[in-house]
Amino acid sequence: MPPPPFPHHHLLGIESLTSEDIYRILDLAKSLGAPSEPKFSHVLKDRLIINLFLEGSTRTRTSFEIAERRLGAHIVNFDVESSSSKKGETLLDTALNLEATGADMMVIRHSAPGVPHFLSRHLGCHLINAGDGSHEHPTQALLDAYTLREHFGKIEGLRIAIVGDIRNSRVARSNAWLLTKLGAHVSLVAPPTLLPKELQTIWPEAQLTSDLDRILPHQDAFIMLRIQTERGTNTLIPTRKEYVEFYQMNSERFARALKTAVIMHPGPVNHGVELTSELFNDPRSLILKQVAFGVPIRMAVIQLLFASRTN
After folding, report:
1. pTM above the 0.85 mark?
2. Strand partners of residue 263
3. What would the mean pLDDT of 29-47 be, rounded to a whole number?
4. Fewest CB atoms less than 10 Å from the CB: which of 137, 182, 243, 272?
5. Is 133 left (phi over 0), alpha (psi -120 to 50) or beta?
6. Right CATH number for 138-290 from 3.30.110.30, 1.10.10.60, 3.40.50.1370, 3.60.15.10?
């Protein structure tokens, strides 16, 4: 008997997914093969996917392109520099025109929160949120969960600290939604100015703390976040030196963690700020595995959306 249709037409965020939805994505990604031994198919050979990246990206955009090609889709990468948006065309008009060319799916990244949700009310094609401002980054959270499950064999019961610029991090928000849904114990760690107290009402299961060293010996994984200077974070911390003193993951600090603890990072890494280069290359760093696992996760998301009950 074939599996039931996936119950979502879009992937706009983690908040709307159930734990069953999440595990279905993770399980399908697992079946698609290891990144070093990828499986190629023509399941999407008649489908057109447009990558609409209106904010800079390296890992996410490349990962989506590879995933789309491995599924056999036709791909168009939208070039904002040569588009009519430079002539004053609205984002909605741009998206409507792209859909009119026959797009079956759009992968959207934008610096403003809520853009994929706004477009979903006007477009009929499938949409994937590849990051919207400081709101959500669902496929990053999914690949982080996949990485954790591959390493530990489970997610439920793990103690995971998300450390850094919580205020501006879409990765922190998507991971907090996902990891708490799957039964992990999440700590959000940041200076008080980067740790909005209202987050406690959104994720009552999560611990909010500014004391990394206190919780350090009890965590299974540390997801380190960069300081987002492009969103004004520099004005919310006293000095870079003080941030490094209390929140940088370095060899001395990591030596006080569990011997089984691992380090993760969504990238790009600011070496010498949130993480030292030495720990980036440490055997317990899963950062490059995260990048590799992004491909099967995004393949799984794309494939399931095309198999949705509303397709």
Report:
1. yes
2. 222, 285
3. 85
4. 272
5. left
6. 3.40.50.1370
Assigned token pair, 98: 């792209």
Q: Identify the residue whose tokens are 């990558």.
A: 51
Can you spell out the DSSP letters for 214-229?
A: HHGGG-SEEEE----G
Taking only the tens place, the pLDDT of each residue in 162-198 is: 999 999 999 999 999 999 999 999 999 999 999 988 8
- Strands (E) in 182-261, as ranges, are 185-189, 207-209, 221-224
Token pair in block for residue 257: 């963690």
Q: How far apart, in whole angstroms, are the C-alpha atoms of residue 212 and residue 241?
A: 16
Q: Which strands sit side by side in the sheet containing 126-132, from one edge to the other?
A: 74-77, 48-53, 105-110, 126-132
CA distances from 231 to 114, 139, 147, 178 (A): 16, 21, 28, 24
The two structure tokens encoding residue 122: 């006007």
Taking only the tens place, the pLDDT of each residue in 205-220 is 999 999 999 999 999 9
